[in-house]
Amino acid sequence: MAASADAISLFDASILGRAARDSFLKLNPLTLVRNPVIFVTETVASLVTVLCIRDLLAGGAWHFSLAIAAWLWLTVLFATFAEAVAEGRGRARAESLRRARSDTMAKVLLRPDDRSRYQPTPASMLEAGRLVLVEAGDLIPSDGEVVDGVASVNESAVTGESAPVIREAGGDRSAVTGGTQVVSDWLVLRITAAPGNTFLDRMIALVEGASRRKTPNEIALDILLAGLTLIFLIAVVSLVGLASYSGMELGVPVLVALFVTLIPTTIGGLLSAIGIAGMDRLVRCNVVATSGRAVEAAGDVDTLLLDKTGTITFGNRACAAIYPVPGVPERELARAAALSSLGDDTPEGRSILAFVRDRFGFAPDRPADAALVPFTANTRVSGLDWDGRAWRKGAVDSVLAASGAEAPSTFAATVDRIARGGATPLAVSLDNRLLGALELKDIVKPGIRERFEALRRTGIRTVMVTGDNRVTAAAIATESGVDDFIAEAKPQDKLDYIRRVQAEGRLVAMCGDGTNDAPALAQADVGVAMQTGTQAAREAGNMVDLDSDPTKLIEVVEIGKQLLITRGSLTTFSIANDVSKYFAILPAIFAGTYPELGALNIMGLATPQSAILSAVIFNALIIVALVPLALRGVRFRPVGAAALLRRNLLIYGLGGLLAPFAGIKAVDLILNSLGLA
Amino acid sequence: MTLIGWAQIALILSLVFIAAVPLGRYIAAVLAGDVRWLRPAERGFYAVAGVDPDRPMSWKPYAVGLIVLNALHFLLLYAMLRLQWYLPLNPQGITGMSPQLAFNTAMSFVTNTNWQAYAGEQALSYGSQMWGLTVHNFLSAATGIAAAGAVARAFAGSGLQSLGNVWADITRITLYVLLPLSIAAAVVLILCGVPQTLGASVEATTLEGAKQVIARGPVAFQEAIKLIGTNGGGFFNANSAHPFENPNALSDLVETWCEIIVPFALAIAFGYIVGDRRQGFALFWTMTAIMVAFIALAYAAEGAGNPLLTAAGVDPALGNLEGKEVRFGIPLSILFAVTTTVTSCGAVIAMHDSLTPLAGAVPIFMMQLGEIVPGGVGSGLYGMIVFALLAVFVAGLMVGRTPEYLGKKVQAKEVKLAMLAVLILPFCILAGTAWAINTTSGTGSLANAGPHGLSEMLYAWTSATANNGSAFAGLSADTKLLDYGLGAAMLLGRFAFMVPVLAIAGSLAAKPKLPASAGTFPTDGPLFIGLLTGVILILGGLQYLPALTLGPIVEHFAMTGGKVF
Fold this sequence. Notes:
Chain A is an alpha+beta fold. In chain A, 53% of the residues lie in helices and 18% in strands. In chain A, strands 1, 2, 3, 4, 5, 6, 7 and 8 form an eight-stranded antiparallel β-sheet that branches. In chain A, helix 5 runs parallel beside helix 10. The interface between A and B is large, with 73 and 69 residues.
């Protein structure tokens, strides 16, 4: 899904075609009333249409009101079209999900302990709590919790990741998702989702925008837009009285034109498209949010709780340096370290081999007649017995005990220094001779420091969460540049930390996968659960990362910010547009009585009628022109709020002030060159 | 425009700016209850009224306190105006006011408007002036400042339940701010020659031998609070243009200073109350920028003179001196015309009706912005805060966070209440004007026809709604339609704005105050000042452009084309 999702072009013909049709269906006033500005526009468009027909029948002048009515209807249509396009793109993404929801037959077990007797039941009628058997090749019929068995499951239908994952009873890998496929072995599941309410169902609904509810900020913005509409309604209606005192009668089409160009139709028309597109961008990065509210909250987050392992550092510790004891050549220590690690299949052991290979060009094969001493958690030592000699490598005290070697004082100092730096010291010995120490440390991912710096510039604190002791944690914290860390973290510590910073008024995002992460995920303002995590974690969070990549948290925050920036920029643009409309329309409507006001016609629009029409046309066209921006989003730059504000105010504030002057003039020139006005 | 003219304007404004910072700090201390040099008197008032000054009040009891107090005072003042014939201190034997005029006048003084549909020296006894009007000059000013203080406190901390104690606030503001300032100003005015006497009018024999009655009275004290409290109701009909109210250039300097000092100081006080001085300065400079720009516009228009008079042979270098006192000249008259309308004062030293059309449009537009640059005492600050909230809400999203102002999230509830407050202004001003001007009674009140007549009516409704009280002159305001209509506009413009704003404060106070970070929308720099200015002009002002176009703007273009109305 991930790969196909990226490919949807802004101008995909099939989406645009369907959207064009949908935009007419959306004219239904009962649904349009959700969008006050556009609903009002539709109402006055109907009014002008009725008056136009009346004039037509009465044989009056109808051309002008027809043109106004037509462009008002187009204004409404462009707004509904914007929403339809955004929904269409979501729907295209949902298609691939829907394919996974093919109706399967579930094997419902009659008795929990007897896997041989089951009753086939359609998945769509499967109730929560039933026990179901799935075997190799079966599609998992619905969301569930593994109660028995171990199996590898292909979850590519949901995650796009084709490598199968292991699912087993108990622990953090017990959740399965409907629509995924068991590749080998069998599982017994307890169904956890009611029919039609599975994870997949909810994802499809969200992606399509069908279950979209207005977010808190959208509601507030709607109130502002409705209030502005009311203010301009007062201004335009009272103008009737003022004009009548001044001895002029203003026609309804003219007043409606002034009204519609003043009310914030641009942002009113694009608001829901911006919201849907924000969800869509999240899906494109393979994260599904349970609500638009969560996406909005992501933009507000100012504290990120990041797991050390996998996010800040690579998963495992790796050999970073070797320190021979005096009198031992470095190459000899390197060789001994490599040989003794042949028996260590852990990532640490492999990292020692890689280190020696890269640094010293020495890559030993296991000698045929050698005996490996494999690493065990018990002995904490690995090694190689060959040719009557014994190479050993492992925890310092274990190696010293096993070899009986004497540790010189310089060695003890080295080991101490390594430990204080937060790394793990290992000792290497040959027979009963101590050769030196190895330093194993967490390797911070390249570029992560810069990333944290960028976050800091945008006012976001990063907090590293690790099970390591304080010394180790502090060292990695310094190296990676996080602002704070929680060492020896237990799930309860995370929860406490979140509560504490929330009490300071901060908003926290975290990701987690285990059942014991669930309380913290629920407490966090944005909790991103890993798709590989438990059902409990997925229910507790308000987003699910299908790639199970904890680094994604940073992207999620950026997408949230981008959504808010786009909304704010277009609101500012829309309101700043008003200035030009006064200069276009006011001199035009008063021209008959007060020709002096021609001085206000600073755009030099040709005739009063073309001036009014140009303003209305520009007002409609700007909605369509901004649809790509609404769908793509205004870019977020990690430069700090002040710089971001300066930039966006310049583009959308000042630009919004000036652009329509040029735009209205251009429309006027075209109208007149075509002889339409 | 002349250099000396600009120097006069610059001198007065500099004196305001210099004094605003220490005064703002002092007012913040007063509102915090830290100023106590009249402690015994203060305690005495609490004891007499039986109130506990330390009882915390949420926004509702606070607002109810303000409304009930002002309602009682309205009834009291109404009774006093109707019954003044029977009351003491009436050496001129002035009779009671008509019901409609008493309603209008009482409403006017309770709402800090001080619209005067009467001539003070003929319609009011000394007693009514002193016990009626002067008292309300204090009370309405203290009401405004108290409300502003309550709103400012909402931003001071997290999860606040209380906005302060309304009785303590009103008492302290009156005792520690308004009274000392007024007494000091009154003494200076007396030194300048403003009368302060209870003696009746005197009769004089002019050089031609004619008898002339010269009205006088306890002018100086009422003059001082009329300006410091941005009330504006003159003792005499001619208001501050009268030589007994404002005898010379020095008294004019003092009066102009008094008129705008408290509103500017309140912006500074806001910074101290919320714990970040720069936030106060941001509002301060926004107010200054808009005010100075419009002073310049009006001065330019007025200094250019009237082309029709120029054509008739008048030296254009004189500018337009019609309707002005020669002892003040154009620059001081313009400065006063703007300062009286950017605040809710409404005192005048020149006839706004006689200004050139563009210069006359400036006072109207300043009032229509909602009088927030710097605005009336208190009402200017809380009006400004409403616009700051709207500015943050509109543009705040552009930094990628949901909007917050001073750490308080601006959400649906606040936006709803802010729009409710903001809506009341265009409704009263535009609907009121459009309605009144199409009635026979309304047109009968106009002195001029055409756009100038429209300006007169528009000015009246604007002045009443914005609680300014200045008049364009030329309008006969004591009619049933205008007495009751404008009275209602004053009431709505004052309390239908104040109550939603207090509700916003209550809602914001309870919210957590989020710590500022690099990702926080900056509300203290030049960028925000520019943004706030833009939002005020576009959201606050643009809806009046059609009305202004049909009034002063068309008149301006007609005048340059050689036509008058």
